[in-house]
Amino acid sequence: MPRLREVPRRELEDDYLKGLYRVLFGERDPVAEPGTATGTPGNWWTVFAQVPDAFKHTTEGFAFYRSPKRVLSDTLRELGQTRAGFLVGSQFVYSQHMKAARFAGLTDEQAEAIAHWPTATCFDAKERAVLAYTDALVLQYGRVPDALFDELKAHLSEVEIIELTYITCTYMMHGIMSRAFKLEYDDVDERVVEVPAPKGTTADVMGMVDKREQ
Asked: Cα separation of 154 and 78, whole Å?
């Protein structure tokens, strides 16, 4: 379950939200009957509906990156989005954009190689520059070496770089929020937990080191 309350259809007052609920869920209440046409639970929408202007701001962001005004190609955009989802550990963002990446024109081999792109041979120089730049944005918080930025500029216009940066960082944020709220496919238990020692054993887990042969 998400960590925050979902908004049922009967509580909606904002017309924008009502329209999106209708598009996504038809006439049913998505809290009582979850699920979207793409197979997700749909609780990203129902949780963010608590703040209508944030909901609208975010969904307009989706329209931004899909706008015909964008100069950046769909394939390069999806490389950034999918890699960002993988790097922040958001199964929701990664899973959804693996599908979007294929739809945008990436091959199955390329989509599956996004997770291990440095050792993959299916990306050209431009695609590798985009993936390396994405790693610098997400893993190094925008600390991009000059040589990497020069390589990016050799392949992309400045407008394309701005669009790539904005969209990739936006999806880094989406992945982080999805994990924090436990939304959609990010509703998973914490993996890094203590594994109990066998009953009756010592609490000094490294005690065997003291007993090694001298």
From this structure: 20
